[in-house]
Structure prediction request, 633 residues.
Amino acid sequence: MLSDRFTDGIVSHIIPFNEYKPWPSITDREAWDSVDEEFRLHFLKLAGEKIKEDFMVFPASVLLKAGQTDVTTDFTRIKAHNDSILYTLVVAECLENKGRFLRHILDGVWIYLDLPTWHLPCPTAMYKRFPAAMVDVTDPLIELWSSAMVNMLSKIYYLLKSEFDRMDINIGRRIYREIDKKIFTPYLERKDYWWMAYHRHYHKKMGVLYSINNFTPHCTNYVLESFLLIEENPQRRAMAVEKTMEVLDNYLNYIADDGWCDEGNGYWFMAYGALNLVLDKIRIAANGYVDVFDNEKIYKMGQYMCNAHIGNGYFVNFADAHPVNRMIGNMVIEYGMNTDNAGLKALAFNVSKRNDFRKAVLDGPVGFDKAFFVMFKLDDLYNRYSRFSDESDGIVTEHYYSDSEVLVARENKSYRGLYLACKGGHNDENHNHNDVGNFIVYKNAEPVLVDPGVESYIPDTFNKNRYKLWTMQSKYHNLATVNGVMQKETRRFKARNVEYRTDESSCGLSMSLKSAYEKSSGLIKYNRRVEFDRRFNQIKCTDDIELSEKSNDIEFSFMTPCRTSICNDTVVFYTNGRELARMEFESGLFNVSEEIIEFRDGKLSGEWNHYLKRLSFKINKPMSELKTSFIIS
Prediction:
């Protein structure tokens, strides 16, 4: 897509070093002096407190412990403390321009320059040539943390270069030397980082091949911007653009053409959102010569956010996705602008209000990019575009992702009524859960049947114990457990014969789920059809099961955050003390019970209001053939 279309003369198109100005540096006094007074007062007051705080160093024992145990709590705590001080003082210095915070900023920068490497120390055994616990200065790694680190340091140097040079010319030389050694030269010379996707790598901790994922656009976006901000050599700037184009081509070749983000809406920002940012940087760096925002696949990758948006800040959350995201941020706005997508612009302007952005910065820290977007771009964008943005432009009635086998559909072109998302797919997706055939239902943009999502990440989330975690198991999705057997991970456990059907009054997805379970389940046949009938405003899930021998160990699970009551053949779902929805089932066939899952995890507790409920429908007599339906209205 990139290298094929733009192979000639990249060097001649790259803009000079001093023309790349994504944000005003401290020398642009007109820009900084025009910043809203509320932000000025906020940052100067906060900086007056932060300058009294000492930066923390990273003892060798902290790096070693993280590498040995996979527990990075001490490392991340130190880094978060230091980053907060730096971010606040740098913005305050740019606003005030009196040199009051410069020496303390330099102390913080120096601590990072002295680190042997900039990557997160815990996953070194996954990436390193030699699997020792301690960070290895002979093997500089570029990954999420190190790319974010170089980007932060490059932005600080770009913003304050004139002041650092005035203090001592060797400050800038040291910053560039460490960045070049740890990031720039390895980025240009190496092709063995797994996320560059020149070839697939084996994931030692999970025992599978790496899935190409958000690492690629995330890392390339941060590293390329760092080159453009501080690399003065035109040849190396051009080389960085060309290398980034190569790596992004590898990534785009791996991503499904339909544009579905199998990592989920939360990771969309690090994946497709970051892709939009790095493509925009390439376009700017090449003075408009390299521009792929007219590409259909790029458009679809942005449109995902509209298609996955349920309403009221809820999103489809298969895999490790968040069900709630009421502050969708600048990336959605900028993607909508770059691809001229009216739906994305409507989603951004109507879900995230102007005051939401301002409040996020004032509640911070949010990082330089978001803060500067709000300070220098937000008001202009809202003034120019928001009044022309119709909320309905961002509402999608129905869409089927044929490559990823995901259907999303709603009752009408509003946030009222029923919403369905259903998936086929396989159990080796990015941030995979064993959830082939799972579906979720919302009504009036409120959850009825849900996907739990994922707890806060722990070491087991990314090793061979992943599927011992309850959120990864099919039993805790809206699926069946057969003869005590849940679905199994890896790509061969998948849906087959997936078929999407649609007409004026209904749509649906049918599939065979037999291949998602091991043979010990005794399944001869397991067909599922999930249908959205708009004539009767109902969603019907029909399961048709045949076993090799009779059994009464067939259990259907349904996950809900609602209070429920069960009477005869109906489950009533309540929210805020009122009836939200109903689910009808076959009377006399099941023993129905409830399992309350109370959260110890703060992340899930905040998303689902402290608990989820698993409704269990277990057949009450042995049978070898079963066809039954659940109808939600």
In short: Residues 20 and 504 are 51 Å apart (CA to CA).
